[in-house]
Design goal:
mainly alpha, 2 strands, 2% strand, globular, binds heme C
């Protein structure tokens, strides 16, 4: 019996480690009111409309954006960069040729080095750039437009990203003189969990 418990324990350990260093809050059903959910949404909205997030969440055919206080006027990515259908510039000049995994001090942004994934644009159906918060809210809770995710999967996406990709992590800690998305990664996760538990209310 004990041996089985040890095996179960070993199986459980990696699952715990896969939270990317984050603590996932547990909200039992019915414990979060709609008002609390809307309050959480107002903080989420400030994140998902922030340039550190929207610059990669652009529509099909659009270039990545250079927007935010660092970029005046805001403009499409310089150097004639196009993402193409691949969203990684494979048809043109791959993002990775400049956005290297371990970029050193030259300031071309990349996700944290432990995440080996290529720098790339979000899929075209996840377009946030230029949208109002309410429109992004409706889109986020629509599985047709969020990559087929229910609320739990949206929350899990954050820990998954922290573990494997690091794009959301980067948005809160972009380095250099870049303005980070408001708040921090853990509080964004807390807000998302609260919003989901409240039934994903939109303003
Ligand atoms: C020729 C080099 C080069 C290539 C190729 C390149 N980039 Fe960039 N990218 C840069 C530089 C340099 C900056 C930073 C500009 C600055 O801070 O003034 C940048 C900044 C960005 C930003 C803005 C980040 C922020 O601060 O919010 C995004 C988004 C971006 N690139 C996406 C992409 C994507 C997606 C691709 C591939 C389709 C790509 N880039 C290809 C050089 C490149
Ligand atoms: C380097 C470009 C890049 C940046 C910067 C970026 N994302 Fe994304 N995002 C992606 C890619 C690529 C995907 C698709 C990957 C996936 O589904 O796992 C994605 C998917 C998502 C999704 C799931 C799909 C959806 O729209 O429902 C969410 C949520 C998300 N990003 C949130 C954020 C937030 C919040 C920020 C800022 C803190 C951010 N992203 C910054 C590239 C980026």
């Amino acid at each position: 019996m004990y041996r089985y418990l040890v095996i179960l324990g070993l199986l459980a350990t990696p699952a715990l480690a896969e939270t990317g260093g984050l603590t996932v809050p547990d909200h039992p059903e019915g414990t979060v009111s709609e008002a609390q959910g809307l309050d959480a949404w107002s903080r989420i909205e400030a994140v998902v409309t922030h340039p550190r997030c929207t610059n990669c969440h652009v529509e099909a055919g659009a270039a990545p954006m250079w927007s935010g206080p660092e970029f005046t006027p805001e403009r499409p990515h310089g150097m004639n960069i196009q993402a193409g259908d691949s969203r990684i510039g494979a048809e043109f000049l791959p993002c990775q040729s400049c956005h290297m995994t371990d970029p050193g001090p030259n300031m071309v942004p990349h996700a944290p080095p432990h995440t080996g994934l290529e720098w790339q644009l979000a899929p075209a159906e996840f377009v946030w750039f230029g949208k109002e918060g309410a429109a992004i809210c409706a889109q986020l809770r629509d599985p047709e437009r969020n990559g087929g995710r229910d609320g739990a999967a949206l929350v899990e996406h954050i820990t998954h990203d922290a573990e494997l990709r690091g794009f959301i992590t980067w948005g809160f800690a972009p380095g250099g003189d870049r303005e980070p998305a408001p708040g921090d990664l853990q509080s964004h996760l807390d807000d998302m969990a609260e919003w989901v538990a409240a039934g994903m209310p939109c303003p």
